[in-house]
Every structure is written in structure tokens, then in C-alpha cells.
Design a protein that fits this description.
This protein has seven helices and 25 strands. The chain has 370 residues and is of the alpha+beta class. The strands form four sheets. The chain has an eight-stranded antiparallel sheet. It has an eight-stranded antiparallel sheet with strand order 14-11-12-13-25-24-23-18. Helix 1 runs antiparallel to helix 2 (71-80), helix 3 (131-141) runs antiparallel to helix 5 and helix 6 runs antiparallel to helix 7 (325-333).
Length: 370
Amino acid sequence: MQITVQSENLRDALGKILTVVDKRNSRPILTYTLFTVSNDKIYLSATDLEVSAKYSLNAKTDGNASFCINSKNLFDILKELPNTDIHITLEDGENLLKINCNDIHYSLLIYESEEYPKLHFGTENTFEINSDKLLDLINKTSYAISNDETRLHFNGIYLQEVESKLRAVATDGHRLSLIELDLAEQNNEALVNGIIIPKKGVFELKKVAESYPDQTLRISLDESYMYIEAKEEYHIGIRLIAREYPKYQSVIPGKTTFTLTADKEAIFNAVKRIKIMSNEKSNGIKVLIKDNSLTVMANHPSLGDARETIPVDYEGKEMEIGFNAKYLMDSFSILDSEDIILELNNELSPVLVRSNNLQNYLGIIMPLRI
């Protein structure tokens, strides 16, 4: 069997699926990538049994073949080759893949493909979403995903269809991010009941959306998996987290008493500067608001203290509230507007983060006792 393919195309294809490959060696076969060659196509597949990816690219092929190869090794080789045609040869009965590019020659060990898991990428229960909207949804929520492995239900983004809108929620128990986008009537039972996409699956979803700007992605669901297809060449399968998502609605205040409006750059930079003098573990700062001013303060027992005051639009009662500075910065950084709106009731209640330019977004930050 012989293959002629552009080195750049094969390198880019491998780059798309490389992050799916199981690096923990739970099963040796999963540390490799499955190559399937047929009818002027190369199909690359990778899985760790939680997330699977398949990508197809055009090539000139003479014969059919299926084998497994160390894709990281091949990717490293392709990065060093010039952007030109490479010629790949596999002789019958041999376990060596020969790669020739000009005067450069490699022989790579390959392995039998019979043990590789059979991968599935879709059901009939589908809906469509624009890649840019999906990317925005991920970018606006993924920062709030929990890193606590003992609370599995927090380790992903929750998707749910609510009144013909697709709602995405992420929370780690200390902060929450929620965004909605319009969704044509789908009657998708899995979405109505809600699904939790794990963190690694979110990362792969983001990569698909970034690879196909302003394109239509097809998504299908079954009881345990979410499948994504882009232009019939890039497929992702994600095992969903089989847990009930926490009742996040209970932490969203039904109404708020006071509203503060601040310039985004001013408040973000003030928090960033004062964070330097906060405790390294808690990132704790205090925010004093009164009479159209906001003062950010921090005190470090072995370094000293710092404060900065900025003008804001606020006419409520004077309050001093503790926050995790990193949580504030994360919430502010995803908003594109010039102004940020904070809605609050008192020093201990959740603080809402909103933007006039993004009516479908809601952020929540819990105060920190300092």
C-alpha cells in the first residue's frame, strides 16, 4: 500500500486528535492512533474511552490498510518536515511504515488494529448549532468548571433546553456562570432533562468550534454520549457525566436591592493590582463600596497591604465585602462590554455580574469571609 499526502495536512489532522490519545496507559492500545486508509482517504481515530475523535483527510492511496501507530512520534516528525508531499509505504506482512520526503527517510513501527475499540459517532437524534455561538457559550462558562475530582457533577458544563433556549451552566460551588442562546424547537428529551459535558469533552468541543469558524455543527445525543460532526470530516464522541446536576437555580437571587456600575478596565485592573498583596491560597481581597466609589483592599501578614479607589455609579448603603480576587477577574475578563454591572443585597449574599451588552448572560460570585 502506498499513500501520497501533504505533510502539512497530515500534521494538522494529527494535531486535532492528539489530545484525545490516552496518555495514562490504562490500556496500551489506547496510547496509539488508528489509521485506516481507503478510497483516497485517510481516517485517523483516537480514544481514551471517555472522549473519542475521528478525522478524515484526502490523499492519494493505492490499496487499503488499517494499523495503529504512535501518533505523538509521527506528529513530532511531521513538524520537522518541509510542507511538501510525503510518500508513505506499507508492504504486506511488514510492521514498518516507511515515510519518504525528499532525501529524508523514516521507518516507524506499527501495530495490529484488531484490538482497537470500535468507535461510534452519532445517532439520529440530532440538532444543529453555529460553531461561533457554541464557542462563545464555552468561553463564557468554562472558567467556572470545578477542578475538584471528588465532586464529579461539578466537573463540566451543564446543557439544558429551557423554553426553546439552550442554557449552559458551570459552577464550582463558589461561583457560577450561565448563558443562553436561541435554539430552534428541537423536542430533544436528553436536552430537556439536561446533560453534563466533562471538562476534557468541553476542551475538544472548543477545538472543533475553533477549527470551523461560522460553520454549522451537527450534534446528536443518546443516554450516555454526545456526538459532534463538522463538515462530515471531524467527529467527536463524548461520554457524559452520569450524575444529577446540582439545583443551581437556588443560588440565584430572586431580586436584588442595590446596583453598581463600573468601568470594566478600571475595576479589572484595580483588582489585578491589589491581588498582588493578597493571600496566595485564598486570593482574598476586600471591596468597600459607598457614595459612587469602590475601594479594593488587601492585607498580607508578611508583605504589607494595598488599596485602590475607583469611581463607580452607586448610591446604595455602604458595604464591605470579601472576594476571591481571581474569581472576580475571571468573571470580568469574559465580558466584552465597557461597563460591568454588579447586583447585590448585602455583605453575605451572592453577587450578580451582568453586562448591558450581553443580556443572555449571568454570573454569580459568592462572598468570601476574610
